[in-house]
Amino acid sequence: MNFSDSQIVGSIMTDHNFETTDNIAEADLIFVNTCSIRDHAEKRVRARLQEFKKYKKTKPGLIIGILGCMAERLKSQLIEEEKMVDLIVGPDAYRDLPRLLTIAESGQKAINVILSADETYADINPVRLDSSGVSAFISIMRGCENFCSYCVVPFTRGKERSRDPETIVNEAKDLFNNGYREVTLLGQNVNSYLSESGTGFSRLIASVAQIDPGLRVRFATSHPKDLSDDLLRTMADYHNICRSIHLPVQSGSDRILKLMNRKYDRQWYMGRIEAIKKTLPDCTISTDIIAGFSSETDQDHLDTIELMRWVGYDYAFMFKYSERPGTTAEKKYKDDIPESVKSERLKQIIDLQQELSYKSNLADVGKSFEVLIERYSKKSGKELAGRNSQNKVIVFPESNYKPGEYVNVQVLSCTPATLRGSVLHP
Ligand code: SAH
Ligand code: SF4
Question: What pTM was computed for the model?
Answer without folding.
Answer: 0.95
